[in-house]
Specification:
Distance between the termini: 25 Å
GO molecular function, one term: ATP hydrolysis activity
Keywords: ATP-binding, Nucleotide-binding, Transport
Radius of gyration: 24 Å
Bound molecules: adenosine-5'-triphosphate
Strand order of the largest sheet: 6-7-8-3-9-10
Domain ABC transporter: 2-232
Helix content: 25-40%
Strand content: 25-35%
Shape: elongated
Pfam families: ABC_tran, DrrA1-3_C
Organism: Paenibacillus aurantius
Structural class: alpha/beta
């Protein structure tokens, strides 16, 4: 659905994108993550045909975005990170306005708009002024606006930003529904653990380059060069700490009231060996577990610098 190759964007002498590569298959929900200023919005604006790239290629459904922007706009629904919502309109009028802009006849819009309002849980606000909606409701209305022409691809720039936890959950539920409808969705966010639950793939962008892309689990596995092990013995043991510090695959061995925490750079086999060796050495182990890493840890690990590959 999306194929980006060597995409660059410079603003004056500043390079916001320095050779972006990214591909997203049809039907995928793709989480676009990266620190502030990494180039997420720039990439999304180029895909949405609102910004011209400096060089490189960005295709949606095989069509170069710069060559046929009109066709691209039929294919995509774009939700920017900042948007205005014409406060003097009522919710229904607002959607009629956008529907009409896409050339959808009134009779069709009359059927479509109640369905869209239902999808984004705003049916009870159909006759309210946009001005009177809460921020979360306005975000949902904006999402409905993106769906008016039934686009295949949704480009959502931080759709959950500024929402309270409850409103974020509501937004997540709507996105899940859109996924089941077969839409391809690119969503940028800083709320990474939430993203992990709903995306099929993530792409991590830093300093204008994609530094890791793949299935959430694969990236997590790749990044788990260092596992954090937690070992609790029947009683604190300076010998166990010394034993662990002596091993080649361990680092940062620390003991606190919860037990011993140790960074471990081996894989499953070596981890099993470590446990067996500790038991053989006579340490009385109560628990030996691996701390779960989540997407937040992965993100921090990756963006700490360097290419994880
Ligand atoms: N119009 C512009 N003129 C000059 N620099 C710009 C312009 N737009 C963006 N930039 C710069 O390009 C870089 C990438 O910005 P972009 O908005 O794409 O980042 P982002 O990853 O979306 O960040 P955030 O998470 O903060 O929204 C930033 O350093 C930004 O300051």
């Amino acid at each position: 659905m999306i194929e980006i190759k060597d995409l660059t964007k410079t603003y004056g002498s500043f390079s916001a994108l320095k050779g972006m590569n990214m591909s997203v298959a049809k039907g995928t929900v793709f989480g676009f993550v990266g620190p502030n200023g990494a180039g997420k919005s720039t990439t999304m604006s180029i895909l949405a045909t609102l910004l011209a790239p400096t060089s490189g290629s960005a295709k949606v459904n095989g069509i170069e975005v710069t060559e046929n922007p009109k066709e691209i706009r039929r294919l995509i629904g774009y939700m920017p990170d900042f948007f205005g919502v014409y406060d003097q309109f009522k919710t229904t009028e607002y959607l009629h306005f956008y529907g009409a802009s896409y050339g959808i006849p009134r009779s069709e819009r009359e059927k479509l708009i109640p369905q869209l309002l239902d999808l984004v849980n705003l049916s009870d606000k159909a006759d309210f002024y946009v001005d009177s909606l809460s921020r979360g409701m306005k975000q949902r209305l904006c999402l409905a606006r993106c769906l008016v022409h039934d686009p295949e691809l949704l480009i959502l720039d931080e759709p959950a930003s500024g929402l309270d936890p409850r409103a974020r959950i509501e937004m997540r539920e709507i996105l899940k529904e859109l996924k089941t409808m077969g839409k391809t969705i690119i969503i940028s966010s800083h709320i990474l653990p939430e993203l992990a639950e709903m995306v099929d793939e993530i792409g991590v962008i830093e300093h204008g380059r994609m530094i890791a892309q793949g299935k959430v689990q694969d990236i997590q596995n790749r990044m788990r060069v260092k596992r954090v092990l937690h070992i609790r013995l029947t009683e604190p043991s300076a010998q166990a700490v010394a034993f662990l510090r002596d091993r080649t695959l361990t680092s940062m061995v620390l003991e606190d009231e919860q037990g011993i925490h140790v960074h471990f750079s081996g894989q499953d086999e070596e981890q099993a060996e470590l446990l067996a060796d500790m038991i053989a050495a006579g340490f009385r182990i109560v628990t030996f577990s691996e701390a779960q890493t989540n997407l937040e840890d992965v993100f921090l690990e990756i963006t700490r610098g360097g290419d994880p590959a």
